[in-house]
Design brief:
The protein is mainly alpha-helical. The chain is built from seven helices and two strands. Strands 1-2 form a two-stranded antiparallel ribbon. Helix 1 crosses helix 3, helix 1 packs across helix 5 and helix 2 crosses helix 3. The longest helix has 19 residues.
């Protein structure tokens, strides 16, 4: 089986995943989401988990990627959204969405096949919970460093936390 092929912003292969590259080429995520919603109406979180499962845990799309794409699908008239309790939104495919999927059937099937191939060949990939934790750490650091300037004590406290986490992980 072939490893899941990552794509650069132009849709060209980007080599092995090391935090760079894109999993889906232009429009690919949109088609996969639409297909998953056509299979059955879903919430955004369910879509994230469905993609993660189809890729064997080697990739989990962030809410910052999924929700804007769902909004685009709604604006294109490919899905409708109904509000449920707790602010959850249920996405359901429309006739226009089904027509779009039919028009791009070969592309959708190729994407799903590639995802299935990627799920089988990623034994060395980091588990999804670890990927998510690394992403959360990076995001927290980015947000904190982009905020008001840190004083010396805060800088040392952050460095100490990171060093301690690294030491504990090395000892596992």
């Amino acid at each position: 089986m072939k490893d899941f092929e990552l794509l650069d912003p132009r849709g060209a292969p980007a080599g092995p995943r090391r935090g760079g590259g894109r999993v889906f080429g232009h429009g690919g995520l949109r088609l996969v989401l639409l297909r998953l919603i056509a299979d059955r109406p879903r919430h955004g979180y369910e879509l994230i988990k469905a993609i993660e499962e189809r890729l064997g845990g080697s990739y989990s799309p962030s809410p910052g990627v999924i929700y804007p794409t769902l909004t685009l699908l709604e604006e294109l008239g490919h899905v409708t959204v109904s509000a449920e309790g707790g602010g959850r939104k249920l996405h359901t495919v429309t006739d226009a969405g089904l027509e779009h999927l039919q028009a791009h059937r070969d592309e959708v099937e190729a994407l799903l096949a590639r995802m299935a191939d990627g799920a089988g060949g990623r034994g060395a990939a980091r588990p999804a919970p670890v990927e998510r934790a690394v992403h959360n750490l990076r995001q927290a650091l980015h947000m904190r460093l982009a905020g008001p300037p840190l004083d010396t004590a805060q800088i040392h406290a952050i460095a100490d936390l990171l060093d301690e986490a690294a030491r504990r992980i090395e000892r596992l």
